[in-house]
Amino acid sequence: MSSGTHKIRRPSLLPALIAAACFSSTLAGESYDYDADIAPILEPYCVKCHGPDKQKSKFRLDSYERLMRGGSSEEAPIIPFQPMQSPLLEYLLLPKSDEYAMPPEDEDSPSPEEILKIAHWIYYGARSKSAERDSLPLEELLDGNQRAALSKLRSLGAIIHKRGEKAAGIIVDLRQAPSPLPEQALLDLAALAPQVREIRLTGHRLSNSAINLLGAFEHLTHLDLSNGNFEDDAVTALNKLHSLQYLNLFGASISDAGLAKLRVPRSGRLYLGNTRVGPETMARFQQDHPDVEIFGSVDLESTLRITEEADQYSKLKVD
Ligand code: HEC
Question: What is the pLDDT of residue 264?
Fold first, then answer.
């Protein structure tokens, strides 16, 4: 890829300084890391426009993966080992008057020292120790006890894998494992808790100890308890799961009393279809949790009421 693909001009002095800095003996040998050195620079100057709130040019740089992937120009913003070919650095070096300058005109910019640090980081390969660790095979992310727990769970029929090639979090799918889970399986599962992000327990009968154990999975983002025996009394065990973004209770034995006690997920998706939860309780939960998208089958009575009301206020034909 040539730098001619984006139409920007370079000012004359700083690039020379960067080239000098990259080769200079004072800096050589010392290599920076994304999490420790680079994220703290980008965060205050860039993330408000390229982060969770706004994604200008569809570009987010609030994680290593996103930073390296780039935005709508589909041009990698960083070319490891080549700071002067890296568009991100070029944007940073443009004079403020240039329409492509980053951050734009009236925004605070990183200092020359900070820009040099970014350049130096790119020159030494634009590395992230945590990303490198995350892309290790599953077995290498676990300690001895965890590896033993992993193979025992697999021998029971559990399907366990990493969330993605570059994501250290693991998914535990227990649909093919015996139900209820034997006590030993619960202990093995607990050994993996720090890494587990997703648990699938569709159709399972959960013992009390299994339900209490679920509360220990503090990094859990996805929990599927659909079509199982999960009931109202068990709800409080889930309320510790502050990272939860997906909770599937479709067909579970939960009713209004249970939902009234539920505090998670704080955002994301909640499935309540085919439960005994009524529309009023669902509406109240929705009010208290505006960032949660609720999926629930609307019962016949409330469907009729809504249609009747619609019929009263409009001339729409209802059949
Ligand atoms: C005030 C908002 C704002 C801030 C702060 C900001 N940007 Fe941007 N950024 C934009 C906008 C708007 C665009 C789209 C520009 C265009 O296409 O003309 C953009 C585009 C980009 C792109 C091009 C992405 C692509 O693939 O199209 C890069 C790279 C970029 N910004 C890097 C940065 C960096 C690095 C910082 C912090 C040092 C930063 N930006 C700070 C608003 C901002």
Answer: 96
